[in-house]
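Quick one: C-alpha cells for this chain, please?
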Amino acid sequence: MNALMISATVCAMAVLIDHWLGEPRRWHPLVGFGHAVAAAERWLNKVPADYGQSLIRGVLGVALLVMPLIIAAVVLSAILPGWLLLIAEVLILYLALSVRGLAEHGVAVSDALKAGDLMSAREQVGRIVSRKAQELDEPGVSAAATESMLENGADAVFASLFWFLIAGLPGVLLHRLVNTLDAMWGYRSARYLYFGRFAARLDDVLNWLPARLTALTYAILGRTSTSLRCWRDQAPGWDSPNAGPVMAAGAGALGVTLGGPAPYASGIHDRPILGEGLAPGADTINAAIRLVKQGVWLWLSVLFVFGALLALVGLR
C-alpha cells in the first residue's frame, strides 16, 4: 500500500469514528489545552503594555504552548512502530475533526427554527457565533448559523485533513493548536489586539491554502459558476482573508444571500453581502451541513482514486 493510500485510509477511519462517536463529551484534550491557554494568557498578557511588549509576549505564549507538543509529535512519528503510529494518527485526526459536532450545532438551530421557537434558536446560535444572538430575527439566526457551518467546515474539517496529508501528526496538531489559540486570542479588543496578533496571523497562514481548497470544493458541489463569481467579486471585501473566500463561495454554491449588517457587542458591523439569491432559512443551515459532508466524501474519494492510480503505476 503506497503512502497516499495509507494516508487516505487514516483520514477515512478518523471521519468514520467522528461519524459514529462525535466529539468526546468529557476529557477532550483540546479542553485541557484551552485551560493552559487561558492560564498562559493571564500570566503573559499584562495590561497595560506597549505594542512591542504585547507582541513579544504573544509570540512567547504561542511558542511555549505549541512547540513542546509539536516536538513530541515529531519524536513519536519517528519512534513509534508503523501500526502504533497509524493508531495514533487516526485518534489525533479524529480529535481534530468535528464534522458531526458541527452538524449537531447547526441542526439544533434549524430544528428550533422549524418548530417556530425563535428564542431557542437564538440560544443555540449564540453557542457557535460571537454576535448578539438575542437581537437576531429569523433570517439573521439562519444566516449566522449558515455562515458558521461554512466557515467552520474549513477550519474544523478540511484544514485538519489538509495538514494531516501534508505533514502527518505534527501538521494536524500544529493546525489545531494554532486554530484554538486564534479562537481564544485573535480578537481586536484592547486586551488582545497586539498580544493575539501573532497567533491570528499564524492561523491565517496555516489556513490560507485549505480555505481556498474548501471554497473550490463548495463551488464544485454547488452552483459552480455563481460560486466562483461570488468568490472572485465578494471575498476581497471581507475582513478575513480566509473566511471571505470560504463564505462567499459557499453562499454562491447554496444560492443564498449571507453577510450584511450584524449586531455584535461593539455595535452593528456593516459587513459586505456574500452570495446571491433568497434570504436564508432553516433549510439553508441544513444545506450548508450537507455541503460540508459531501465535501468530505469528495476529498476522500479523490485521495483513494489518486492512491489507486499511484499503485497501478508502481509508485510509492
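The radius of gyration is 20 Å.
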